[in-house]
Amino acid sequence: MSDLFPLCARGAETRRRGRVLVGPVDLTLEAGGVTVVIGPNGSGKTTLLRLLHGTARLSAGTLDWACDTEEARKHLGFVFQRPVMLRRSVVQNIAYPLRLRGVGRAKARGQAAEWAARVGLGQMLDRPATGLSGGEMQKLALARAFITAPRAVFLDEPTAALDGAATREIEALMQEAKEDGVRLILATHDMGQARRLADDVVFLHQGRVAETGPAEAFLAGPETAAAQAFLRGDIVE
């Protein structure tokens, strides 16, 4: 089990120009499995992920890993909904995090080539990354996030703009990562995906955690009126 967890948020908030974007959040994430963050559009799913990851500024409250925060951040990854591609080749994009950590060019390229093959991009090593399809870019983003052997990865709607075939491939990669012991925290609007992947669920409403619990129990019968309405497909404001 990872020595990063539990991750404990207590009264955690992030603000911009005096306005609270998310919080106060009281949430504990234990080691292992996939946490799926769901909620209406505008509820703050992306911001919550960024807050927990440490990308968004903690404006109030506390956010504590089981180890030193700076140490924890060395073992985290983040996959964005629209991944940024460097104007370099596929293999150079995947190798980039290793190069930042001081890994030699040849060794980094070798590991990047292995990861490219693992995600189905093995025949595209020297292709410009900016010319990839949406699904291929997300595969690259996953390889780039996982190449440093993170213990936890945050994923923000990684299949939002993808077709069914690409979504299946990305989900298979996430399941493989989970089986390898990587802790995944995934924001999604796709309830089918939530049902397929979630071990536990965080339901976010108006920037706050309205309900959380094991996925099976939550999806079978949420306790809060907002979550019940959301699962029925009603408009939740």
Report the uncertain regions. Answer: none
CA distance, first residue to last residue: 38 Å
Helix content: 25-40%
The helix/strand order is EEEHEHEHHHEHEHEEHH
Looking at the overall shape, the CATH architecture is 3-Layer(aba) Sandwich
**What can be said about the biggest beta sheet?**
6 strands, mixed
The number of domains is 1
CATH topology: Rossmann fold
Query: What's the number of helices?
Result: 9
Task: Give the DSSP E fraction (strand runs of 2 or more residues).
Answer: 15-25%
Can you give a write-up of this model?
With 237 residues, the chain is α/β, with parallel strands linked by helices. Helix 3 (90-100) runs parallel beside helix 5 (134-146). Helix content is 38%, strand content 24%. It has helices spanning 45-53, 69-73, 90-100, 105-118, 134-146, 164-179, 191-197, 215-220, 225-232, and strands at residues 7-16, 19-29, 34-38, 60-64, 76-79, 152-156, 183-187, 200-205, 208-214. It has one domain (7-85, 132-232): Rossmann fold.
